[in-house]
Amino acid sequence: MKPPCKVITVVTTKAQSAAADLLSSGDYAIACPGCSLLYHGVRTAASTLQPLTAERSELLAHLLRMTNDAFAMELAKRAEDRFTFRFMMSLGEVNQYRKSHKAHQSSDVDCFVKVVSPKLSPGARQVFRKAHERYAKYEPLLTKFTSQRDSRKRKRVAIEEARRIKAIVDFETHSNKTNPAWTFKNGGMARLVEDFFLVAEYLESQQSDRLREWCKTFASVHLQHEEYSRITEIKDEETRNQAIVSKLQPLVGPLWSFFVALCHALQEDENELNATDAYWLGLVDEVLGTAMPTMRWFGEWRDDAPTPQPEPASAEKVDQHSKETDTNATISPTANPTSIEST
Asked: DSSP code of 13?
């Protein structure tokens, strides 16, 4: 069975709502300069609703939130490679920012946000800000789960889920300790549900083959040449891959966490973006006519053909050429007979 064809999506002027989602779902998404894109959360037409009650309003809000989360994770799966590529290609600027601003304690993700934000439109900067706030809030919780995994074999998935819920309850209680009006009954339980699904999606992605592929793809870009060469010399493939993952996971893990937060931010309110915004947010692969790096550059790269060198003359050809020169000199009607005889 042949593999499915790659789907290339292009926006020339506008891609709004579902059209924007279709654009980003392409295997290779292209935006033309000057185009406009609109991303927003799930909507429900008011005319189709039954008379609202407190119970129905709460259920509707929960369903909309859950649907937004599902769309955010689907968008993240479609665009993760693009965003990771943007991050890797910006590492030089990230390191330069850290040195020039003496931000040695700042994480790569924090510096990346500072580097990219000036390149975005005001609307896109707002999305970036909301995503960074969400990332900063959840990163301690996610770090706790990834650094304190229980390696013992569990008989039931529910046991692991119960452990997560207990940790999230403690996390939300601590995060809202300065708000005396905050309770689980008054909005806290809905946040608990949102936290639970976000953590589940994050941990599942960290344990999947996708993380290994990210690390293997960008190991040669991020690792020092000597370190990368040393790892590639490991003969056992499983040991080699594990060494790559252990080196790259501290970088890729937080990046994925921030990107998931970014995809969630795009599902809140209405977010109008231009082509450059879409490029930096990982929503498209390429903006036509610009010099912004794309994965296509690397995929289509071919070394220049070697320049043809003139064929070296053999000794036989040199001798033959010498004889022809002597003959021509002898029979030349303009030649001086005296000079020929002396030769």
From this structure: S
Q: Which neighbouring-strand residues pair with 36? A: 14, 274
How does DSSP classify residue 40? E
C-alpha dihedral, 30 to 31 to 36 to 37, nearest 10°? 20
SS3 call for 9: strand
Cα distance between residue 272 and residue 17, in whole Å = 10
Closest by Cα among 39, 73, 67 to 259: 73
Q: Are 128 and 262 in contact (CB under 8 A)?
A: yes
Provide φ and ψ at 7, rounded to 5°. -105, 120
257 contacts 135 by C-beta, under 8 angstroms: yes
Picking from 242, 251, 258, the residue whose alpha carbon sits closest to that of residue 223 is 251
Question: Which amino acid is located at 101 in the chain?
Answer: H
Strand partners, 287: 31
Asked if 40 and 269 count as a contact pair (C-beta separation under 8 A), the reply is yes
Cα torsion at 92, 94, 99, 100 (round to 10°)? 100
**Does the model's pTM come out above 0.90?**
no
Domain borders along the chain are 53-268
| Bridging pattern class, strands 14-16 and 36-40 | parallel
Helix (H) or strand (E) holding 341: helix 337-342
**Distance between CA 228 and CA 161 in Å, rounded?**
37
104-113: per-residue pLDDT in tens? 888 888 999 9
CA atoms within 13 A on the CB side of 305: 3
Cα distances (angstroms) measured from residue 228 to each of 107, 234, 238: 22, 10, 16
Type of residue numbered 214:
W
Tens-digit pLDDT profile for residues 325-334: 555 555 445 4
